[in-house]
Design goal:
The structure holds 2 protein chains of 2 kinds. By secondary structure, chain A is mainly α. In chain A, 78% of the residues lie in helices and 0% in strands. Chain B is mostly helical. Chain B folds into 2 domains: 111 residues, no CATH class; 65 residues, no CATH class. Chain B starts with 12 loop residues before the first helix and ends with a helix. Classes of the chains: A mainly alpha, B mainly alpha. The interface between A and B is large, with 107 and 99 residues.
């Protein structure tokens, strides 16, 4: 059943989203695009852009939007609940039984090991997005990407403004 | 856990000292606080931590500074969005499981409603040429955003040869073998136990 599958997919996605919202991108790519063909890559990239610009955590925005795209309002409900549920369960367990779990040496070792994995997965996310947005024969796309990167790393301007700036550049240049 | 049965209907001495305006914690107030936090979080979850601290520690004293540090560590280590994890954590500490549900509902409602509104219109307008033009500019900016995130998260790690090896290793197996990202995460955790044990012991 579609609704159940959406819930299960997003539960899986929420369960393994360590280290921030961007790790969710390759997870969604695998579960939703490759695994189930519920979405195309270019549709997904646009959804990512909007999820970045709207209030709220990127992961919730993404889940809601993708769920809606797949199965309308019921889809949006179950995808959002699905992605939140692992947080609910895990945090409740941790607070009740293991509130200082992050101080345990074993846990710290695991997280040291996780860091390269997280970086690699965000690298995958970058490759996926860059493939559909930056083209060697389109200098405008390269220019916007480089300019945005420089502003993001050297200044503390709100990323939302950077994306809007990109949109404005797109409006003018394309 | 020590603070499970804290009674917020009376002002504690600590709160009387530091906080000008004390509201006894109710489900509604939990809901509304996290509604506000959820509505003003843009992009990265780390940016909203000062807002949460202001609302919970400074303004209301529902959480002490030490507890807040603890909270943040748990929220960042557990999977899922930092805001959501924090909402569950704080909600539970104050009003048990129903409290955590009220907090999470508040934190996710702005996201959910705004996205639903945008999604209903967006999917109709996506095809228009001028909208397409805007997104031709937005997409490279998003790519840059992700690259900037890699740079920020990776900077401390790039100097470590062992970690660099693992980063390239995971990238290679993911791209060549088309591995599920969950497997990469599991490998990462496992490699932590095997290869990073000594790093922790020595630090």
């Amino acid at each position: 059943m579609l609704i159940l599958n959406i819930f299960l997919s997003f539960f899986k996605i929420g369960l393994f989203s360590f280290g921030g919202g961007y790790v969710m991108l390759p997870l969604i790519e695998k579960e939703i695009i490759q695994g189930n063909a519920w979405l195309t890559h270019s549709q997904f990239i646009d959804i990512i852009a909007i999820a970045e610009m709207t209030p709220g955590p990127v992961s919730i925005n993404l889940a809601t939007f993708v769920g809606y795209k797949i199965a309308g309002i019921p889809g949006a409900f179950v995808s959002t609940i699905g992605v939140i549920m692992p947080s609910l369960v895990i945090i409740l367990i941790l607070v009740k039984f293991l509130s200082k779990f992050y101080e345990l040496p074993i846990v710290q070792s695991i997280f040291r090991g996780l860091r390269p994995a997280i970086i690699a997965l965000i690298g995958l996310a970058f490759i996926m997005v860059a493939e559909t947005s930056i083209f060697f024969d389109d200098l405008r796309s390269i220019g916007i990407a480089v300019a945005a990167f420089i502003v993001l790393t050297l200044t503390r301007i709100n990323p939302v403004l950077i994306i809007l700036g990109g949109g404005l550049a797109g409006f003018i240049l394309y | 856990m020590k603070n499970n049965n804290r009674d917020f209907s009376e002002k504690s001495d600590r709160v009387k000292e530091n906080v000008p305006d004390t509201v006894s914690a109710t489900f509604i107030s939990l809901f509304i606080i996290f509604l506000k936090i959820g509505a003003f979080t843009f992009g990265g979850g780390l940016a909203m931590l000062p807002l949460i601290k202001n609302e919970l520690v400074d303004k209301r004293g529902w959480v002490t500074s030490e507890e807040f540090v603890d909270l943040v560590a748990v929220s960042m280590t557990a999977p899922g969005a930092i805001v959501i994890n924090t909402a569950v954590n704080v909600g539970y500490r104050i009003k048990g499981i129903p409290g955590s549900l009220a907090s999470v509902l508040g934190a996710s409602l702005p996201s959910f409603t705004i996205i639903m509104v945008i999604a209903t219109f967006f999917l109709q307008f996506q095809e228009l040429p001028k909208i397409e033009a805007v997104f031709n500019g937005v997409r490279p900016a998003v790519a840059a955003l992700i690259a900037a995130a890699i740079y920020k998260i990776g900077k401390p790690v790039f100097s470590n040869t062992k970690s660099m090896f693992f980063i390239f290793f995971y990238l290679a197996v993911s791209l060549i073998l088309n591995l599920h990202p969950i497997l990469v995460i599991l490998m990462g955790g496992l490699s932590g136990l095997i290869f990073y044990r000594n790093d922790i012991k020595n630090s």
